[in-house]
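TL;DR need structure tokens for one chain.
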Amino acid sequence: MSEIKKRLSVILESPTSDINDKLQKICQLLDQEIPYFNWTGFYFKNGAKDELVLGPYVGAETDHTIIPFGKGICGQVAVSNETFVVPDVHEQDNYLSCSIDTKAEIVVPIIKNGENIGQIDIDSHTLDPFTEEDREMLEWLCDEIAKIY
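>> reply
TL;DR here they are.
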């Protein structure tokens, strides 16, 4: 995982100032390097509204381009400000299905100056694939994104 962190750091520190370009490259890297990351994307707070808007992502198209706070796993993280690991999405009552293939999900908030500005959302077609190492890497990544966003 440290090799992936190094490569993520290179993207984050690249001289381009286009944050969306960096986020797209991050999605591509995670998608290519971690076989059970089957949909990787970002959602960001939509101005002053209590909703999330879809940002850069890699994976199948999704109908969930706007997610109200509290709705689904992403919406719950927007309210709780805490990482949410879902080993089996079918055991969640408040789950928004993006794909019939999705079996597990992890959502990590991006906190800047104490405020949740967005999150990374990763779906997997594998039951219970996410490790503590994945969680730590994604939390590190979101902390780093908050510094440049």
